[in-house]
Q: What sequence folds into this?
């Protein structure tokens, strides 16, 4: 069984106020998430076949765009005074 957790649960510096620590944690996360995406994509292709797997595999450009949106929303949320 898998438990979805926040990134900062495993990489506490991901939310650090120290910009160097934060940058380092984000680099670790990016590397780990790319490796996980590769493993999931390869497994989906083997188990589901190419046609079915493509429904679930995010292209690198789409993934980068989504990641950028997440970062923008994260910055907006962190800056909120009502959160």
A:
């Amino acid at each position: 069984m898998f438990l979805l957790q926040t990134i900062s649960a495993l990489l506490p510096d991901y939310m650090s106020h120290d910009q160097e620590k934060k940058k380092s944690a984000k680099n670790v996360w990016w590397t780990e998430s790319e490796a996980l995406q590769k493993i999931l994509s390869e497994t989906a292709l083997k188990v589901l076949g190419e046609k079915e797997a493509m429904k679930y595999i995010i292209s690198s450009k789409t993934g980068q765009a989504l990641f950028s949106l997440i970062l923008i929303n994260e910055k907006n949320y962190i800056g909120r005074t009502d959160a």
Q: What stands out?
A: The helical segments are 7-10, 19-48, 50-53, 60-78. The CA atoms of residues 47 and 53 lie 8 Å apart.
